[in-house]
Amino acid sequence: MLPTANLYSALAFAETNRLFDRLEQIYAALPPTTCKMCGECCADPPPAALIEYLHVYRYIRDRLPEKQPELLEKTVAFFYLELVEPQQHCPFLGADNRCVIYEVRPFACRLYGLINEEKSPVRRDREALAELAEKYREEYGIVLPQAVVERRTPACSDVVPAGAPRISARRAENLLTALLMLDAQIVNPELVLERITMLPLPLHLAITVLNDGLRARRFEVMKTYLETGSRALVDKYSRRAAGFRF
Asked: What's the CA gap between 123 and 216, in Å, rounded?
């Protein structure tokens, strides 16, 4: 959503206008939860608002300097393989099944397990994904694996609210609206209404890290991977991204 040239002005605006404080208030309206940390819900990162991405970016910059190269490589790999490799997981999931950005995880991650996924206001748009798959087939000759097109975040009965009741779908929708209103202060509100500011966190970060040319090679990388199974291009661009400076 935000290339590097626009990122820091957006960060400065959010900090000056205390948008991160308001974001934390929205998060605080959700009951805290506990779970078994199995990592199954991290197979398909849900959409995150632009303000949430800025919040996470700042956290990685300030709190996780030693993890930045690894996160960048995994994020770029996710950008290229998200739609062609069914076994992808969120780049922010550690080897121990712990989220490395848990403290600043997005609204959708905090909401998971609190309401039925079919009623979640931040679930993946399955119809849009099917339409995207058809577009890729017709325009680029790329046939997305059915396992990707039909991928679903599994329901989980292990998420337990800690000392608070679960919330209603209407309450969740209202909180999401408040969240998107923060985005509308940063970018054109029309983009927010169309949910263009809502992307999985790895894609937000990849757009910042990769230049226009490397982003445009996504189709080439996807097609090569599907036809040959080779990760050579993925690894090449991932290593290059690891030198990005926050």
From this structure: 27
